[in-house]
Amino acid sequence: MNGNGNGSRNGNGSGSERGLRGTTGPRISTDFAYRGIETAILENEALRVMVLTGKGGDIVEFRDKRTDVDVLWRTPHEWTPPRERYVPTASETAWNEHYPGGWQVNLPVAGGGWEIDGSAYGIHGESALLPWDAEVVRDDSEAVTLRLTVDLVRYPFSVERELTLPAGESRLEIDESVTNLGEVPLEYVWQQHVTLGRPLLSADARLDFPSATGVNAEYGADFPNARLEGDATYDWPHSPGRDGGTVDLREIPGPDSTIHDQSFLVDLEEGWYALTNPDLDLGFALTFPLDPFECVWYWQALGGYHESPWFNRNYNVGLEPTTAYPGGDVPDAQRANGTMKEIEPGETIDASFTATTYGGLESVSSVDEDGTVEGENGSGNESE
Predict the structure, then answer these.
(1) What is the number of structural domains in the chain?
(2) 371 domain-assigned
(3) Residue 119: what pLDDT?
(4) From which residue to which does the signal peptide run (predicted)?
(5) What is the rounded distance in angstroms from the CA atom of residue 109 to the CA atom of residue 284?
(6) How many CB atoms lie within 10 A of CB 333?
(7) Which of 308, 104, 69 is nearest to 195 (CA)?
(8) Which of 23, 72, 310, 335 could bond 102 through an S-S bridge, CB–CB 3.0 to 4.6 Å?
(9) Against a cut of 0.70, is the pTM above it?
(10) What is the domain-level CATH number for residue 322?
(11) Domain for residue 172, yes or no?
């Protein structure tokens, strides 16, 4: 697909028939372009997933076919594709200038800038700004699999990501690994930067987590539109509010809000979350391993993110499984609270995720590792 929304098979509008094969069962192709970026599409009867292989392996479309809703958020500003093997400077603006929304993998750091031996990063590291090599490693009637690989430039990490779409299922299975190719132990922060937006996100939606502890950022002057009390700890979902009351974070403020908050969910009982919109009969759920993804960053950009390039234009939530917190003062704060992790020379760490859409529920009580979602329907009965 190209930048104006008109599809082409190979990015030059020739309509090549080398694109998605077949009319039934799962299908896959790497023969697309989006804004000039090499792109892959995975598709079955239930889901359509678009991946920017030429930029970070970003997932920029996760469309539920039953409702024809893309659950991911797209940024409102005029982002530009990175050029060739672009690696960010220490500037805080580089990552955002190339940010389309959707879902990124951030390595070797997430959050604020990081000074490293002989170099530096701005926000969110480099993995989401590099082109990844893409290979179709499975393409049959049972499932399709796209393998993405990249070697970072400023850090000796090799990263692999396999996306599998099974036949007939409304779920995407993701297996990732990170290998330290260096000769010394290396610290890292690894993040799944997932952002959800309208129409799934609305005042009709509800956010469910398992039992967890919430930690609000120490705001200072950076969050003038915060509704939550800064530098506070609470039991999910009831956060202390800036006005002295209590905020139920299962509830989503409407699109006319002017709110910007950041919470970190830690001590999770299980690794999952679910955002459900009964009005659409649609929800999105993600599972993740608590080792090493021991926390979720809950970015609440609900019409009140005043800084560039947003200027109060974005209505979205970021629900971001991450290996460490908070998002600022990297790496000192993460070392101090014991969440900064390390990979030994030659060591590989891996993790698996399942992303799924579902219907028939108003709230969610559990999500299994295979993406099975259970909760209550409109009659108050348990359903799945």
Answers:
(1) 1
(2) yes
(3) 83
(4) none
(5) 26
(6) 18
(7) 104
(8) 72
(9) yes
(10) 2.70.98.10
(11) yes
